[in-house]
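Subject: mismatched residue count in predicted assembly?

I count 867 residues in my input, but I want to confirm that the predicted structure covers every chain. Input:
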Amino acid sequence: MSLPDWLNPEKIIPISRGSTTVFKTGTWSGNRPEHREKTSPCRAACPAGNNIPDALFAASQGNFDDALSAFLEESPLPGVCGSVCYHPCETYCNRDKWDGSVHIRTLERAAADYGNAIPIPLANSGERYPVAVVGSGPAGLSAAYHLARMGHPVSVIEARDEAGGLLRFAIPLYRLPQGVFQKDLKRILSLGISINTGEKVGTKKLEEIRAKSSAVFIASGAQRSIKAEIPGLDLEGVLPGLDFLQKVRRSVLTELPGKVVVIGGGNVAVDAARSARRLGADKVEVVCLEQRGDMPAHEREWSDALEEGILFHYGWGPKRFLGKRSRASRVEFAGCTSVFDSKGRFSPSYEEDESLMLDADWVILAIGQVPDISPYRASPLAERGFVQTDPITLATTWEGVFSGGDFVTGPRSVVEAIAAGKRAALSIHCYTLGKPFSEAEERTLLGDGPGFSIHSFFHPREGWDPKSVVRFEDIESLCLDQEARRSLGRLSPVERTTGFHEVDIPLDLREAVQQAGRCFFCGTCTGCDRCFLYCPEVSLLPPDENCSFYRADDAFCKGCAVCAAVCPRGVMTMGEVK
Amino acid sequence: MVVKAQSRPAEVLRPGHAGCPGCGHAMGMRMVLRALGNRAVVVVVPSCVAVISGPYPYAALNVPMFHSAFEIAAPTAAGISQALKIQGKDDIPVLAFAGDGGTFDIGLQSLSGAADRNEDFIYVCMDNEAYMNTGIQVSSATPRYAWTGTSPMGNTRRKKHIMEIMAAHRIPYAATACIGFADDLTAKVKKAKEMRGTRFLHLLSPCPTGWKMEQHLSPKAAVAAVETNIFPLYEIFGGSEYVINYRSKGLPVETYLSLQGRYRHLRPEDVKSIQAETDRNWEELKRRV
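Triage response: the counts match. Full output below for your records.
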């Protein structure tokens, strides 16, 4: 039925039937947003280059399997690092500039405790080269782990009767419970790595291994305690620091009655003192050359020791050990006026008039450890008296032999050893394929380095700029909630010293989810949809089957940059029309 | 990270509209409309909303939209709502968009009449605090001291308290919302949709052009307005029951003012006076809760 004009709505009132999509407003501006993921400052600060934002995002969703999987991208030992790492990540956390950094280390431990994951294989070239690793400490295990993920057959040779190096025989149980390390180790071994324990390697043995392998990685650690030329060193009751810790871990020493004097200001000294306290020593005193605050030991370890009733004497160097019937009974110290000479070299000078006399039934000498290169006498490794490597490739002067970790650098941290192992793994991989390692490293360098991402070398992450690090200023603070960093549960000093219970109480599941939720996930898109939702042009396209990230619809985007402004993690970045 | 696909509500606003880059109104309309859904009727009156909704014969909305006269957004919506009921389509919500000029000044009388009769529609006042599409002239929604083309030395009058006016009508629901708090805004539209009678939403949507800001600052300015208590988020049920929805950080008003070129001429004593008035209003609001 046709209506008369005066009743026909089309004639009375004009009706728009077209769509404004005929107007291609994209020409209004040459600016365009780009979905460009960046690196979080925590990740850039982590020597191992751990993928912290992905891991913590999964944890914040209660998915600890994926959280663990993300940690396993770069490191084989999340449980260990989650327990003992000195966590530079937390120092550089952007949230530290807001209301306290995220508990990254503890969350890594939570991922290891609550998650189960199989390490993702690194796509390999199909060519497999046998590689031998000497030493099964963190550096050796890390190298073996990554090489195995690339498909190379790896055999590890360990001098002791069990794998783990200092993780197994030095770090006290109150810092690293055995079960945590064992879970990590089991996962590493599940990659098909063979570990031959009780086998010592020297020049001759290494020649044999070299002949059978495409490359060798030596990571024997720094295990020789430095022995100073101090009179009375051979008295009974005088123990080198590492030997002492090892005896405690092997339960050779189960009690330590009497007075204990620990000499040294590093972490081994503090570990020894705290272990001695737990073995029931009546009095534990630490004597170091350095002044308070200059000690190389981590501050947390030092303050824990103080809480546990350990006494510190700063600025004293050992002069002689005095004994009764061949057993140590006293130590005499001289005042130390400076530890380093004008050129910054270790060269303590003493004020001989000042002296300190301490009673001691046990003296633990923890004045440093050095790599033991004596087994490699008469090989190219020992030419200079220390192992020299290329800092980038970790190659030694001996063809096909790589080395890293404490064996090269002297005692450092667990995470730096893990980093060295990872570097060696990729370097060896490139070496066996005859490709330059520097290019591989350059492509995946996190921030200014030296950390890099081995995972993204094999599984490139689209739209990620690893060198660009998100600063706090890149995050819109107006949109941030206040949720101050909470202090974590710890045993009281009394509870701690009754045994070797872990001092830090791990997070329970609920707390872990909550604490992970504090992460800003700097530089990592979490799919929060804010850029999409705030686009006034309805022209920001969300991820779909064809594209895994947000991008502007060129036809309509007016380049207003709202999407970049509302991104809480600094991912959306303004660029130009391509 | 590979972002997984998620289900999203249908978009009602279309691209290609004529809003300025970074337009707060467009963001606000988009959020309101996707919360309302694509089974609805929308009324617009002259305002930036009318500009955005498209020039004849093109429309930027994916739902039936009626373009009415400046002063009659509310009665137009009321009439359409009545007509739909007569046709038995009483499940279709009717929503009117008007600007602050069309609400605070020109449409106030007819809005009052419709609210008085408790007509069944949702009224969204898109407040950008001046007549922006005609070239930035002062309205009774313009805050004190703000620059506009007709208040070159800064507005001398205070912003009219539209929420109190609406509360005085004892309508079932009145709420403030802003584009900086998308979840809150969405929840309020959905809540209003489930109710009947006159429902009023006072939506602050910053205008980069008229507020003399950079294009990307609309959401940030909206958040700052809330966090400084200049524009608190609250609801009024039945004209008397007040609920504050968001506990702000209580930041100093400079956080908000310094983002905007329209406040650039402020002297320290002006800022102080804005702070004092903001504090007074906030205390007053808390007393009502």
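Chain B touches chain A at residues 1-6, 8, 11, 13-19, 21-27, 30-31, 54, 56-60, 179, 182, 208, 214-220, 223-224, 227, 249, 255 (CB under 8 Å). Marking this ticket as 'not a bug'.
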